[in-house]
Each structure stands twice: as C-alpha cells, then as structure tokens.
Amino acid sequence: MIGKNHKTWSTLVTAEEKRLIPCNLCGSSSFKASFSCEGFSYVRCTACNLVQMNPQPLKTEIIRRYNGEEYLAYQLANEEAFLNLELLALADADFYGPEKGRLLDIGCATGSLLDVLREGGWETTGVEINCCQAEYARQKRRLDVREAPLEENHFPGAHFTVVLASHLIEHLNDPASLLQEVHRILVPGGHFYITTPNIASFQAQFFKNRWRSAIFDHLYLFSVKTLSRLLREKSFIIEKISTWGGLAVGTAPPPVKRLFDKAAKRFGFGDVMIIRASR
User: Fold this and answer.
1) For 217-273, what is each residue's pLDDT tens digit?
2) N or C, which terminus of the chain has less Cβ within 10 Å?
3) What is the pLDDT of residue 66?
4) Where in the sequence is the domain holding 223, given as residue range(s)?
C-alpha cells in the first residue's frame, strides 16, 4: 500500500505581495482551481493546462526567499545526493561524449556539479542568486559564479556550447523569459538540459496536493507536454525526454518501488523529467 509522500524542502509559507498574471505559456487569463495546499494553492490554465500559482508573488519577493544561509546549509547537507542525481539525469539525456566547450549552469547552488564538469574539461560558468551559495562556490571551489539572475548577466550571444538548468524553472516568475535568454546565449546547435518535476507523473496524480513537489517555492508545475510546448515556442528543438521516479522512498515495499521505478522510466510517467533541447 502506498504510504506517506514526504515533500521536498521549501521556504516557510509567508504573506507576500502578489499579482494576477496571464499564463506564461499561452497568455490566457482563464484559470480553474487545480489543488490547494497548506497556505497556498495552484490553478490550471483552461487553454493550455499549465499548472501555476496565480496570483503570483512579485519577483522581488521570490529573490528575497533565497538570500539567507539556511538554504546553503540545506544544500551542503544534501550535496552528495543532489550531485549524484544530477549526474544520473545527465546520463539519461546522453550528455556525456567527446564534445567540450563553454558550459553554463543556471542555479548552480554550491557548484558541486560545475566542479566535476570542470575536471572533465569543460570551461564552466555558474549563475546562483543565493549570495551565500555563490560565495561558497567562488571561495571553496574557485569557480566563476555570478549572483545576478540570468538575464541581468548580459552574456554574449551564441556564447555557450551547453546550458544546464536543474530544478530551477519551477521557481521562476517568468520561465518563458529564461528560455528566450538561454536560446540567445547558446551557440547554433548548442544543447540545453532542463530538469524539473513532472506533474503528469503517477505520484502527482495519486497524491495531488500532498505531492512532494507541490511546495511553496514552486511557482509552476510542468508536464512533459507543457514544458515541451514552451521550449518549441522559444525555437528549441526537442531531442530527448526522460523521466524517472515511480514511487518515493518509503511509500511502498522495495520490490514494488523497483517495479514502479523501472516502469516510470520506460513509459514516461516518472516524478522528475529531463529534456535535452538544441538551438
């Protein structure tokens, strides 16, 4: 029997200034209730089915959430596990190969992945708005990590061979703007690897408002369909899609979990997805 579904870490629910915005994917202003959580809720766009918080906290409120040392402590405590998951996700998306060049990791946290990739021959740059994590990456790992949001760094056009964004897009007020900027800074034929929770997963459909990724920090909950559409509308070419995570640890006996995990990867109903797209 499926048991408790433990949510991921999130900032505490607080009162923030909000505003109603059109759907970031299709521009519609027609929404219906999706599900309600403790202190916040989601709506679904009636035109394109993108699930989102709306009204939405202002950008200044979102940036303020990630300015303290608490998030650094959380990342350091889980750094090895997070790194292993990122490496496995990149392997699922066929990242590893002879190609090397300039690589940008948006939302690079403490820089553990950048450190590994630099050792592998990549010329690495990171973006991380949490000043404590950015400083840790610069001081402890001697990495080039910028603290401004992506669009405010004004990177040259057609500059990066690869751009990574792992568990980032769901935190942003304007995902479409991020994808537009990524497309601009990628070289022609360059690759974008984007990882995010999958609201079309078995777990999301089963647990609903108790789903582990339905947290205060997640402003958008994408499905493979909605994220693929947004990528294509920003002129990306979808090359590969992979999902994983049939059941969370502790929600079922190990043999059942292994069976669900295998099926989730094979049939695409996993809890997390990675999409490899090219310019």
Assistant:
1) 999 999 999 999 999 999 999 999 999 999 888 888 999 999 999 999 999 999 999
2) N
3) 84
4) 18-278
Enumerate residues 6+ apart whose C-beta is below 8 A from 176. Answer: 24, 25, 230, 233, 234
**Mean per-residue pLDDT over the chain, rounded:** 94
Residue 247 lies in a domain: yes
CATH number at residue 239: 3.40.50.150
What is the length of the chain? Answer: 279
pTM score: 0.95
Q: Which of 62, 76, 217 is nearest to 135 (CA)?
A: 76
Residue 12 banded pLDDT, cuts 50, 70, 90: confident
Band (pLDDT 50/70/90 cuts) for residue 1 is very low
Q: Tell me, what DSSP letter sits at residue 253?
A: -
- 147 in a domain, yes or no? yes
Percent of the residues in the chain that have a pLDDT greater than 70, as a whole number: 97
Q: Using alpha carbons only, what angle is made at residue 190 by residues 162 and 184, rounded to the nearest 5 degrees?
A: 90
Residue 114: partners with Cβ closer than 8 Å, 6 or more residues away: 103, 105, 108, 124, 126, 137, 141, 143, 145
Cis peptide before 197 (omega within 30 of 0): no
Residue 5 lies in a domain: no
User: How many domains would you assign to the chain?
Assistant: 1
Q: Give whole-number Cα distances, 202 to 4, 32, 36, 61, in Å.
A: 15, 22, 19, 32
Q: Does a structural domain hold residue 80?
A: yes
Q: How far apart are CA 109 and CA 132, in angstroms?
A: 9
Q: Which residues, in sequence order, are bridge partners of residue 195?
A: 166, 274
Burial readout 183-194 (b: 16 or more C-beta within 10 A, e: otherwise):
bbbbbeebbbbb
Token duo for residue 210: 């108790």
